[in-house]
Amino acid sequence: MIDSAMHDQYGQRDATFQAAGGEAGVCQLVNDFYDIMSSNPNYRRIYDWHPDGNSARDKLARFLCGWMGGPRRYQETYGPINIPNAHRHLWVTNLEKDMWLNCMREALARQNYPKVLEVYLVDQLSAPAEMIRRTCETRNARHLPGHLSRTLDKSKKGH
Ligand code: HEM
User: Which domain CATH number covers 106?
Assistant: First the structure.
């Protein structure tokens, strides 16, 4: 959990984007993120889900610029995006969500950011990551064979 002072510091206009080093800073962060994901076997599972080529780096860097309050670079090139829907074809459970967030933690630690900014960003990114996990869970539950899907529903209701 983070305190409201951090929200005041980073949540206004493009304060987060500027603190992260603007476009160059966000690109560096995303390059480190994907370098770590591609080289650390702990993240192999989610790395293997990515299509070949560098489009994932470009897409994430552009998206994060706007998400941090900077220019909406993703939409300029790729059009509108809904983050949970963009992941609904994947099987994201808590395991993959934690892999993604841990990889981001490692990438953030490589930047020259104040510790409070690192903590703030992981905290803020946890919200869309959780929305992705829930969207994938709902979608995948619908695609399970009937008996498994019903078992899942029951366990959610505490049966
Ligand atoms: C929860 C864990 C996450 C996993 C396992 C994950 C994994 C992936 C994968 C495998 C792709 C490539 C999909 C494809 O092209 O088929 C992708 C795309 C993308 N991800 Fe994530 N992601 C996660 C969380 C996030 C978060 C939290 C954000 C942003 C806040 C994000 C932003 C994006 C963006 C912008 C794209 C490009 C989407 C597109 O243009 O279609 N992801 N992600």
Answer: 1.10.490.10
pLDDT tens for residues 125-141?
999 999 999 999 998 88
> Do 70 and 22 touch, CB atoms closer than 8 A?
yes
Tokens standing for residue 149: 């899907």
- Distance in Å, CA 86 to ligand 1 centroid: 7
Q: Which atom of ligand 1 is nearest to the CA of 60?
A: 35
How many whole angstroms separate alpha carbon 110 and alpha carbon 28? Answer: 10
Q: Is 3 contained in some domain?
A: no
125-128-129-134 Cα dihedral, nearest 10 degrees? 160
How big is the chain by its Cα radius of gyration, in Å? Answer: 17
pTM: 0.90
Q: Which two tokens stand for residue 120?
A: 């703030």
Q: What angle do CA 28, 101, 116 make, to 5 degrees?
A: 70
Cα(57) to centroid(ligand 1), Å = 10
